[in-house]
Amino acid sequence: MEHPILFISIILEKLGLPIPHGPIGNGILEKLCEPYMTYTWFVMIFLVVVGKLTLSNVEMIPGKGQNFWEMAIGGMHDFFLANMGEELTDRYFSMIATFALYIAVGNLIGLIPGFMSPTSSINTTLGLTLIVWVTHHLIGLRRHGLGYIKHFMGPIPVMIPVMLPIELISNIARLLSLSIRLFGNIMAKETLLFILFTLAGAYFAPLPIMMLGVLVSLVQAMVFVLLTVVYFQGAYEHAH
Amino acid sequence: MAKLSTEMISALGNYGHIGFTVVIAVFIGLGGGIYLDKYYFEGATSPWFTFIGLAFGIAAGYKSLFDVLRSQMEKPEDEDTEG
Questions:
Q1: Pair A179, A125: CB distance under 8 Å
Q2: pLDDT at position B78, please?
Q3: d(CA A198, CA A208)
Q4: Which residue is closest to B80 within chain A, CA to CA?
Q5: B27 pLDDT band (50/70/90 cuts)?
């Protein structure tokens, strides 16, 4: 579901770039100009510019901007350290923290009229989830070698033919549940806002949903990060 | 405040995805069974692999439930009891 007015799409259309009117564009340029792609770029540019502006001169006594970042990054670092240990935190902190910031900003940006959440497209969330899913298998393989397969065989050797398909199914279910939950929540928020806006926008009908939208956006970003941490930790530790 | 919100987040993360994971596990098992029946054995074994796949899917759903339970029960213990 799209907002009626997406200002980046309008600007690009004025510049003569092809904007797809259906859900999927035809050419490669049209695919690159889809709203979720352009707003992904927008969120990336936003994060880089804000980071550059607030952290260009790091001081001993932090100002407002630096204080915020120290709190956010420090909080995340403590959380990862408590949940997945020092080695994993050192190696994967930048990746998961980037996901957290990107998802949080991407979710929240959809609340502003004229913007849409890039995470309300299944392509974005499935992309993020695939990265996490492949990485947690790589962590397991790197740590345990071929013994990583013990994670999928259950505790009792006799039960292997039964446990192996069960474990494989529940592992693939992680991939789908992680991506579809984020996508579903954010798309529901966007759709609800759009419908309420067209029905009774003049009477501030979307306001309560916007308030809930802030909560949903932040909680979904946190849940994504928490599950990423749990999966990484699960692949890293020994099989039960 | 920080402690409270961390607990709330981990509770949301652990319990908020249970329903979804169970449903998706069942559907993956069922879909795999239907695929085996219809396209791999081309209907010769129908409907057996559908049922077997459904059983495995339901079992996988319950297994992910137990995983959540186990991870919650292990948490209060010391870190060095693992393995």
A1: yes
A2: 47
A3: 15
A4: A237
A5: very high
CB B26 within 8 A of CB B54: yes
As a whole number of angstroms, the distance between CA B25 and CA B59 comes to 9
The pLDDT, as a whole number, for residue A105 is 93
Judging contacts by C-beta atoms under 8 Å, the chain B residues touching residue A176 are 24, 28
For residues A36 and A123, is the Cβ–Cβ distance under 8 A? yes
Q: Percentage of chain A with pLDDT > 70?
A: 95
- d(CA A53, CA B46) in angstroms, rounded, equals 64
Where along chain B do its domains lie?
A: 17-70
Q: Is the predicted ipTM greater than 0.85, yes or no?
A: no
Which of chain B's residues have a Cβ under 8 Å away from the Cβ of A173?
21, 24-25, 28, 60-61, 64
Chain-centre distance of CA A128, in angstroms? 6
Q: Do B83 and A169 touch (CB under 8 A)?
A: no
Helix (H) or strand (E) holding B17: none
- Quickly list DSSP for A149-207: GGGGS-S-GGGHHHHHHHHHHHHHHHHHHHHHHHHHHHHHHHHHHHHHHHHHGGGTTTH
A174 touches B: beta carbon within 8 Å: yes
Q: Which residue has the higher pLDDT, B48 or A9?
A: B48
Q: Give the rounded distance of the alpha carbon of B57 from its chain centre.
A: 8
Amino acid sitting at position A205: A
Count CB neighbours of A151 within 10 A: 18
The 10 Å Cβ neighbour count of residue A68 is: 13
**DSSP 8-class letter at A237:** S
- Sign of the Cα torsion A66, A69, A75, A79 reads negative
Residue A105 to residues A39, A54, B23: CA-CA distances in angstroms? Answer: 11, 16, 29
Q: Name the more confident of A159 and A229.
A: A229
Counted residue by residue, chain A has a size of 240
